[in-house]
Design goal:
Largest sheet: 9 strands, mixed
Structural class: alpha/beta
Strand content: 5-15%
Number of helices: 10
Helix content: 40-55%
Number of strands: 9
Radius of gyration: 17 Å
Shape: globular
Strand order of the largest sheet: 3-2-1-4-5-6-7-8-9
Oligomer: single chain
Order of helices and strands: EHEHEEHEHEHHEEEHHHH
């Protein structure tokens, strides 16, 4: 898996995403980050391989053969520099496989609507309501937003995870799915970065985009529910979601008769 993330002052987002990716079964993870984050990433996550950008404060280009990666996640802590915007366009143009787009990657796409057409088919985008509005326009109510998500998912050929208390997953050509797990305590900084890592890891293991989206969002919410049970919704932080991923996987294995 490859995760492209981070900028000066936002390296925590890259670490959160990378850690959850490894905790979700990615066998080998490479993280592309700006030079300013090299020491902190190597110290915080020795299991990850690190590529540093030419730029010290933000990402300006990914000088790597993208075909060697089974999945790419991009966006956490990325920033919105003009050079980063150009990098994103080139990455989307060059990728032959689905990608996961979140956070600043979505903000960059929203600022350059032509980039929407460059997103590879089968990709997963994970906007919260405000990001969704920047991408696709305003809606009058939740029902209208869900209908718009279904419409745009079909038009673009991508999966849209509309994040919320019970996230809605719009699959191209299907009715869509509401996720039953998750709680209000997960509305905390970095929670979306954790989800990006989970989805990237599942795609890298060969799950179809639909399977990755449904399972990933479910696991993310389940880990958050386990964290809330032990720590309270009020005290939960994003890292607690990742910390409870092992228990979430074990819970799924037991319920399916795997243990």
């Amino acid at each position: 898996a490859l995760i492209v993330a981070g900028s000066y002052g936002k390296m925590g987002a890259a670490i959160l995403s990378a850690r959850s990716c490894l905790r979700s079964g990615a066998g080998l993870l490479t993280v592309h980050i700006p030079k300013c984050g090299y020491e902190v990433m190597q110290a915080a996550l020795p299991e990850a391989m690190v590529m540093t950008d030419f730029n010290s404060s933000f990402i300006s280009g990914v000088d790597a053969d993208l075909s060697r990666f089974d999945a790419i996640g991009i966006g956490p802590g990325l920033g919105t520099a003009s050079e980063t915007k150009s990098m994103l366009r080139e990455l989307l143009r060059s990728s032959s496989k689905p990608v996961v787009l979140d956070a600043d990657a979505l903000n960059l796409v929203a600022a350059d609507s032509d980039s929407l057409k460059l997103i590879p088919g089968g990709s997963i985008i994970t906007p919260h309501p405000k990001e969704f509005e920047r991408l696709f326009g305003t809606t009058t109510d939740d029902f209208s937003r869900v209908e718009l998500a279904r419409k745009r998912a079909l038009e673009l050929g991508v999966i849209i995870v509309l994040k919320g208390h019970h996230s809605f997953i719009a699959i191209p050509g299907e009715t869509g799915y509401y996720n039953p797990t998750g709680n209000a305590g997960m509305a905390t900084a970095g929670s979306g970065d954790v989800l990006t890592g989970i989805l990237t890891a599942l795609l890298a293991q060969g799950y179809s985009p639909k399977e990755a989206a449904l399972l990933g969002v479910y696991l993310h919410g389940l880990a958050g529910d386990l964290a809330a049970d032990r720590l309270s919704m009020e005290a939960m932080i994003a890292g607690d979601i990742t910390a409870h991923l092992p228990e979430a996987f074990l819970s799924l294995a037991i319920s399916s008769g795997g243990m």
